[in-house]
Amino acid sequence: MVFPGVQKTTWTRDPVAGKYYFHRFYDFQPDLNTQNPLVLAEIRKIMGFYLELGVCGFRMDAMPFVIQTKGADIRSRERYEMLREFREFLQWRRGDAIILAEANVEPKNNVHYFGDDGERLQMMFNFWVNQRVFYALATGDSRPLAKALEQTRGRPENAQWGHFLRNHDELDLGRLTGEQRQQVFDALGPDKNMQLYDRGIRRRLAPMLRGDRRRLELAYSLMFTLPGTPVIRYGDELGMGDDLELAERNAARTPMQWSTEPQAGFTRGDKPVLPVIAEGPYGFRKINAADQRRDSDSLLNWTERIIRMRKEVPELGWGAFTVLETGNEGVLALRYDWRNNAVVVIHNFLGEATEIRLRSVDGKGRQLINLLTQDHSQADGRGVHHIVMEPYGYHWYRAGGLGYLLERTSA
């Protein structure tokens, strides 16, 4: 059996047909021959069917493998022109529909998927940044994350990154160094049963962060303020857990916990395909949407408020970002500029309070208005902001207008 994500050409013999078929993932999942025009026609037919039902976009899994040439004696290469063909068909049928692709590739290859002029994919998941996010959460070191943001800066203006924390697969750490990956394992998934394919963690976010509300809010505040579009996985707005007794990726694929009703209100059936989490701190009687809707301090209501605020800050999705020097490797500060407006977001990955200093240049940004609390910041007589970051703290500020800049205060 070949595990998902392992790039290996494999052929398996079908016992009934007596013939061999090509696959890259599990041996019961034959690859589609996307070089065949009839296969591509069927893909377009399926896309058209769902567009007629009102679907406004598609998440395309394992995109590099979809567009690769396949065969026993064929050297694999990516046929990027297929991406434009998908895009043209999609927008011909529905102008505002998008393709969100899963393509865990190095930054140098991103432009091939977006296209030089953004004529291929509209959106891609940013795995490169995602893995450094978890390195920062695990170690308190934000420097690799800041570097990853710079490395993935280049994209067409009409293309967008999808930023996420967890999805329905394992947390893939394959793009980190061996040492970095082990540090994340040690902090977030130390038991071998929590790991998968020697490269990832098969846990949901809340158990990885030990249910620490401060760290959960930090992680989601960060996701909602990264340069791109935030993508949240079902159940994470509640702090759902995982079931490590289930095989492989199914540990993080348990049913949504809607209520305290039987089967967590997910189904009226007696036996869902995967069992609901019934016991322990993440059981559906303790973690469910119905109860959290009634609790103004719940994670669900906090998430609703942060989403509402995110919609009120268009700079985060449209603005040009700058990584600010904070003088502390555990604190990441980003500035976004868009249409003469500026927003500054700061995240402290450390479990201890710390103070950073940011200077207002050109006399602008002397006052930073906190968008989440009443904790505003007024620059001192030298134009310097002294900002105290709580353990795992996060601040969203609206600052001055055009030309606004924050720099690290010189010693």
CATH superfamily of the largest domain: Glycosidases
CATH architecture of the largest domain: Alpha-Beta Barrel
Domain unit count: 2
Tell me the distance between the termini.
58 Å
What is the radius of gyration?
23 Å
Quick one: how many beta strands?
A: 19
Unreliable spans: 1-7, 401-411
Please identify the top-level CATH class of the largest domain: Alpha Beta
Strand-pairing-aware structural class: alpha+beta
Q: What average pLDDT do the residues reach?
A: 91
Report the major sheet.
6 strands, antiparallel
Strand content: 15-25%
Helix content: 25-40%
What's the CATH topology name of the largest domain? TIM Barrel
Main sheet: strand order: 11-12-13-18-15-16
Explain how this protein is built:
The chain has 411 residues and is an alpha+beta fold. The protein folds into 2 domains: 10-311, Alpha-Beta Barrel (TIM Barrel); 319-408, Sandwich (Immunoglobulin-like). The chain contains 12 helices and 19 strands. It has helices spanning 37-52, 63-66, 81-93, 110-114, 127-139, 143-151, 178-188, 205-208, 213-225, 289-293, 299-311, 315-318, and strands at residues 10-13, 20-23, 57-60, 98-101, 123-125, 160-164, 171-172, 195-196, 200-201, 229-231, 320-324, 331-338, 341-348, 354-360, 367-370, 377-378, 384-389, 394-398, 406-408. The strands form 5 sheets. Strands 11-12-13-18-15-16 form a 6-stranded antiparallel β-sheet. A 5-stranded parallel β-sheet has the order 3-4-5-6-10. Strand 11 (320-324) and strand 12 form a beta hairpin. Helix 5 packs antiparallel against helix 6 and helix 5 (127-139) crosses helix 7 (178-188).
